[in-house]
Amino acid sequence: MRKTSILIITLLTFGVAQAQIDFGPRGGLNFSKIAVDNISQSGDVLTAGDAITGWHAGLFFRAGVAGFYLQPELLFSFTGGEYLFTSSSQPSLDGLREIEVKRVDIPVLFGKKFAKVLRINAGPVASIVIDAKEIFLDQEFDLQDQYNSATIGFQAGVGVDLWKLIVDVKYEGSLSKLDDQIQRLNLMTDQRASQIVVSVGFKII
Q1: Model confidence at 2, in pLDDT bands (50, 70, 90)?
Q2: Rounded-to-integer distance, Cα 127 and Cα 118, Å
């Protein structure tokens, strides 16, 4: 038993000693959308809008052995989307609505490195909504109490390491919804966020 314990400790120590550790700040742009079920009923039409450009900033940590790595991140993100509503019975509500969401994202990516430069990775991401609002006709409406406070999604993408710089392009999809209705319009619709993330980091260790 003692020999087994010593062997396990030796292997763990060797693994830690051989691991490549990277840590540093990272940030970039998000091109995000909020998907809604397209609705056309009783003169009311709801459709998803275009992507909006946001940003993110935070920290990354990476531990790698034998070409494989684990990379958790802690990011503050400004994201959102648009949807268009038109109504024959409520014309005063017609127009494009922009949704802005501020959240804390915690992706945990598993990846493989090729030729010491190229990478692929994928993994889950947990998001905590800290502020959400709808902008319509220069008015702002608070959505934080309406939206779920936390969602789960996934990320997958590719990256390159250039000296101390790390560059990533990732797609993020949602496994849970922000909400299942738009209360001000009295419409039931599954709202889910997705985005393309373009990010640059710098290794300080």
Answers
A1: low
A2: 27
- Which region, left, alpha or beta, applies to residue 163 given φ > 0 means left and ψ of -120 to 50 means alpha? left
Cα separation of 173 and 175, whole Å?
7
Cβ neighbors of 182 (< 8 A, separation 6 or more) are: 36, 46, 189, 191
Cα separation, 198 vs 53, in Å, equals 11
pLDDT, tens digit, for every residue of 3-47? 555 544 443 444 444 578 999 999 999 999 988 877 776 777 888
3: DSSP letter: H
Q: Which of 49, 47, 78, 30 is nearest to 194 (CA)?
A: 30
Phi-psi region of 42 (alpha: psi -120 to 50; beta: other; left: phi over 0): left
Of 197, 204, 157, 205, whose CA–CA distance to 56 is shortest?
Answer: 197
Q: How far is CA 178 from the centre of its chain?
A: 13
Domains and CATH numbers, the chain: 20-202 (2.40.160.20)
d(CA 205, CA 191): 40
CB atoms within 10 A of CB 147: 20
Q: Which residue, chain included where needed, has tokens 């946001």?
A: 54
pLDDT computed for residue 203 by the predictor: 95
